[in-house]
Write a structure and sequence with these properties.
80 residues, mainly alpha, 2 domains
């Protein structure tokens, strides 16, 4: 089953025999929302890139520049 959002996932898992593969930090938050168990995946998974994309017309928009900087700073803080 594929869902377009993570929001319903903890409740779907809680009431079924399904499993889901999600980032550890997300799983930890979901555990606070529903009675689910967290297990490590028993295999190595490849890393993936996270990218930002935006329309060229917003390249120099002050609010957009601020948002892109804030996203990069948050990502760098999480990566430490």
């Amino acid at each position: 089953m594929i869902k377009p959002s993570f929001l319903a996932l903890p409740f779907l898992l809680e009431t079924s025999d399904m499993v889901a593969c999600v980032p550890e930090r997300l799983a930890s938050r979901m555990k606070r929302m529903a009675r689910i168990e967290i297990f490590d995946i028993p295999l190595e998974l490849p890393l993936f890139d996270v990218r930002m994309l935006w329309h060229p017309r917003t390249q120099h928009a002050p609010a957009h520049e601020w948002l892109r900087r804030a996203v990069v700073e948050c990502a760098q803080a999480v990566g430490k």
